Amino acid sequence: MVRKARLAGVALCVLTLFGGVLTSASASPEEHSAGPLVLGHRGASGYRPEHTLASYELAARMGADYIEPDLVSTKDGVLVARHEPEIGGTTDVSARPEFAARKATKNLDGVQVTGWWTEDFTLAELKTLRAVERIPQLRQRNTVYNGRYEVPTLQEVIDLSKRLSRELRRDIGIYPETKHPTYFRKLGLELEPKLVDVLTRNGLNRPNAKVFVQSFEVGNLKALKSRLRVPLIQLTSASGAPFDFIDSGDPRKYSDLLTPAGLREVASYAYGIGPAKDQVIPRDAAGNLAAPTALVGDAHAAGLKVHPYTFRAENNFLPVNLRSSANPAEYGNLFGELSAFWAAGVDGVFTDNPDLAVASRSER
Ligand code: G3P
Ligand code: CA
Questions:
Q1: What domains sit in the chain, N to C, each tagged with a CATH number?
Q2: pLDDT (tens digit, 9 = 90+) per residue, 218-235?
Q3: 310 CA: nearest ligand 1 atom
């Protein structure tokens, strides 16, 4: 019944041609997909080193609706895809003697971190580095790709999504995240103007572009609201507070954003929320999935979609009773975890294993 209604809604929409694929002018992103959205987290990072073009391409070919670049800035102000500005664990920089002197300890959102930093490298310098697997102890197979792929720019990710959209004859969306916006603003390397500029130059700053923009901070999303015409997603952590709140002395925590009143406020600038998955279905004392919280219902009541993160196949990331063995690197029952979240009513999932999420979605 729900599926019929969704199809009818889509059929009523006006179709427009963009990027070689048909997209609807008025249906929501969820209505375009085969159900809840499959969001390729850092690409298909269960199978390739994260945030590489190879990882994003595989995610798209596996059926992901969107690919997710986390964005940081180079010294010369170019947006590149890395999970955080420190790149010692995701590139071969530590083995490059020419960059040994760049190793530095910095305060990143209140935490002292030692390593190599994108803001200390020009794009040309960063392009000499090669990506490596972040968690080789869990993803040994991915290490065969170490040293093969560059750090991509946002422009290269967009170029890839457009090329694959044409080839696969479906729109491959992008879901960029501004990483540590307050940190970069204080360095004079504001992320937001660059993001607006790149999206606009690529014809993606428009209401029906297949783009979401996400952030763990609040102030930058609110500021982007007037400069972007694409939907915004407020990310939340299971603990702590947005760093811009901490920085400005605002006492509110992430938990305050997720009360019914907090969600109504979020809905004034965002299309949806991206909570940690435990905020949707917590685990009990034994580490098994407990009953869902009220979050999905409360968010929907406020008019917000819900895209939790992060769904991963390794036992290490699964509830205890869905693990296949005591080996944290072996695959457990991700299907079981996903089916609980589909049943809880989520509108999409960030996943390192888009192929499994696509398969699970089709079984609903
Ligand atoms: O953006 C959704 C999810 O990726 C948030 O967590 O730390 O993997 O960027 P993180
Ligand atoms: Ca992210």
A1: 29-362 (3.20.20.190)
A2: 999 999 999 999 999 999
A3: 3
